[in-house]
Write a structure and sequence with these properties.
The chain has one domain: Beta Barrel (Maltoporin, Chain A). The longest helix has 25 residues. It is globular and about 80 Å long. The chain has seven helices and 37 strands. The strands form five sheets. The protein has a 22-stranded antiparallel beta barrel. The chain has a five-stranded mixed β-sheet with strand order 3-8-9-6-7. A two-stranded antiparallel sheet has the order 1-2.
């Protein structure tokens, strides 16, 4: 009933936007503004080449630097809420759960994230520690968000989407920039960057930033004791050489202190069988990337990229260190008048080392793995400027599952100058993580219900299995981009995802066994005994009401149905089906009452959800749907100076968004926040 109510409300709001568009188109009082510039935005993530947004045969959404600035977001996860089809939950003050088209959770593993071509991938669980990706927002050129598989170009784990964070060139960040501010939740915001030209046609910048964030609160209003601070610095150098070659060298270094409250399983701690732990964890890392690009001719170019990424993380239940070396080569060339061919080769070396605890162990504690890959994608113009076919495939070899093939087929039809229709069929896989192959984790303790002297509890352990295979997806997509008036742009995507060999743990054949201490232990090995499907739609609309006033709408609908084999003991797939909001809505109003003043409102709605896993104390409790409203006010009294005031989550004192998947003590709520900043260009 409630879902239908929100469906009607969303339909009404969408219809209202369209009515506003019609009014704008007929009114003589409003200045006619074209959407051509919006559709001409350059993207590179779809075809690994520069192309206009209107020519991309994929569900892609671009978040510009101006969008980020005017949203009031202070982190990449918060900025990603602007994109349709992405699910973003803030779990505590220093953790987010982010996914595309379902399967969201703290350890979501079906979304590939890149920063300037560097994969920010955690081999232990095939996902992303978002708190470590503290990019300087002012230096971001754009964030390209692809919903749907991108495996043909980007490889395994680009299953449900790709997020590509692209920073500005050093030439675009010349001079100095100082940002300082703070508030009741954003306790400290500071950044300093300076760019110069040390040699002709060579540009460089260095930066340093620091953020400190207050703890969230419990439902009773108590301190969540999860405060967080992070410091980061880095550099970038871009140089154009005499032969037309372009070289980029960049690197980052960060260190973070985080706090979290845990409830650790303990068979002796009756009656809850958990011990509270106040955990102060540390995370640090650095990366270095080099890229060489050369134009071979007017119709051909090549690029060679090498990066090294080192990360460390020490928390109560596991310590881990990981090193990734990645080498990537690609070439683009015209094959005749109607074919645009892109191909490439890649190699990645991954090594890790774990500090085992009584809770989580990895066997062996250290391991190195190699990944070899090659891809080819051919874009064929069947009818000049009207119909284009894209065929491609990526072949990878990894040390766990051997060869993996991920093909795709895409067709784009330019119906008119105003409208484009596209469709695709793709296959993608998610290869096993280190945890799914080599780990053992004590997840929770269940009461047996037996009288003394029989064991009162059973400890549940999930363990890796060396036979664990890749999860797979076949995705069917259909999209429409149209500009019905000079003031309105619509982007609609429909999808159907067919999943197979999804993760489960344990079957009815697994029995509890006693330990030497007399406790019972139930060991549940990982297996590929689940399957399912998901379908939905995503709508993005931009409406220019008048000069200096724009509305941006994003709406998503998702239905996910997952089923495990009849003999499995694992019900997490049933839980995972409910972990994502069925409907989401974002409506932004961006207004300039005067050229030097920004007045922006951001209204968001997120439907009911549940926690991603079923092993924690609060895992069966609903996370209620919620509305939020953010306000961003900026004033530029003179060139180079901007004063900003931001209010976040203004509709309520606090709200719950998510729940920590691993050993969480209590759910924490996001509070209303107000902060201000001063930004000085010099």
């Amino acid at each position: 009933m409630r879902t239908q109510l929100w469906a009607n409300l969303t339909a009404s709001l969408t219809g209202g936007i369209l009515m506003l568009a019609a009014t704008a188109a007929l009114s003589e009082d409003l200045t006619e503004l074209s959407m051509e510039e919006l559709l001409a935005v350059e993207v590179t993530s779809v075809g690994k080449k520069a192309q206009s947004l209107s020519d991309a045969a994929a569900a892609i959404f671009v978040i510009s630097n101006d969008d980020i600035r005017r949203s009031g977001a202070t982190s990449v996860p918060e900025a990603l809420r602007m994109a349709p089809g992405l699910q973003v939950k803030r779990i505590d003050a220093n953790k987010w759960a982010i996914s595309a088209r379902g399967f969201n959770g703290r350890f979501a593993n079906k979304l590939l994230v890149l920063i300037d071509g560097r994969t920010v991938y955690t081999p232990s669980f095939s996902g992303v520690y978002w708190e470590n990706q503290d990019v300087m927002l002012a230096d971001i050129d754009r964030i390209e968000v692809i919903r749907g598989p991108g495996a043909t170009l980007w490889g395994a784990n680009a299953v449900n989407g790709v997020i590509n964070i692209i920073s500005k060139s050093a030439a675009a960040t010349q001079g100095g920039l100082l940002i300082a501010g703070g508030g009741n939740e954003e306790r400290a915001i500071g950044a300093l960057r300076y760019g110069g030209e040390p040699a002709p046609d060579t540009f460089a910048r260095v930066y340093a930033k620091y953020n400190a964030r207050d703890a969230l609160i419990t439902s009773l209003g108590d301190d969540g004791r999860d405060e967080w601070d992070i410091g980061q610095g880095g550099f970038r150098v871009d140089s154009t050489l005499g032969a037309g070659d372009r070289v980029t060298l960049q690197g980052d270094l960060y260190r973070s202190s985080l706090r979290q409250q845990l409830a650790m399983p303990d068979p002796l701690a009756t009656p809850t069988f958990t011990d509270p732990v106040d955990d102060h964890l540390n995370a640090q890392g650095w990366n270095l990337l080099g890229r060489w690009e050369r134009a071979l001719s007017v119709t051909s170019d090549m690029a060679l990229q090498l990066y090294y990424d080192h990360t460390e993380r020490e928390e109560y239940y596991i310590g881990q260190r990981a090193d990734v070396l990645d080498l990537d080569f690609q070439q683009r060339t015209k094959a005749g008048e109607r074919q645009d061919l892109v191909w490439g080769l890649g190699y990645r070396s991954m090594s890790d080392d774990f500090d085992n605890t009584d809770t989580i162990t990895f066997t062996p504690t250290s391991e190195s793995r190699n990944l070899w890959s090659g891809f080819v994608q051919d874009e064929i113009e069947l009818l000049r400027d009207r119909l284009r076919l894209t065929l491609g495939a990526k072949v990878e070899h990894n040390d766990y599952t051997g060869w993996e093939i991920q093909p795709n087929l895409r067709l784009l039809w330019k119906v008119s100058e105003q409208s484009t229709v596209w469709g695709s069929v793709s296959r993608a896989v998610r290869t096993p993580s280190r945890a799914e192959r080599n780990s053992s984790a004590s997840t929770n303790i269940k009461k047996t219900g037996l009288p003394p002297p029989y064991p009162q509890s059973v400890l549940v352990n999930t363990v890796g299995d060396t036979g664990y295979a890749s999860e797979s997806l076949i995705a069917y997509e259909l999209g429409l981009r149209t500009t019905p008036t000079k003031r309105l742009n619509l982007d609609l995507s429909l999808f159907y995802n067919d999943y197979d060999q999804l993760r489960t743990s344990g079957t009815a054949s697994n029995q509890a066994s006693p330990t030497s201490a007399g406790d019972l232990v139930l060991t549940l090995p990982f297996a590929n005994n689940a399957y399912g499907y998901g379908y939905g739609l995503e709508l993005a609309a931009d409406l220019q009401l008048r000069e200096g006033w724009r509305l941006a709408l994003a709406y998503s609908y998702l239905d996910l149905d997952l089923t495990a084999s009849a003999d499995t003991l694992d019900t997490s797939n049933e839980t995972q089906s409910r972990a994502d909001p069925r409907q989401q809505l974002s409506l932004r109003s961006l207004m300039n009452p005067r050229p030097n003043i920004d007045l922006d409102l951001w209204l968001k709605y997120v439907d009911n959800t549940y926690p991603a896993f079923n092993s924690a104390a609060y895992s069966d409790q609903i996370i209620p749907g919620y509305w939020t409203l953010d306000l961003h006010l900026a004033w530029r009294p003179r060139p180079g100076l901007e004063l900003t005031l931001v209010g976040q989550n203004l509709l309520s004192e606090s709200h719950l968004e998510g729940y920590q998947d691993a050993y969480a003590a209590v759910p924490l709520e996001v509070q209303r926040g107000i902060y201000g900043t001063i930004c000085l260009d010099f």
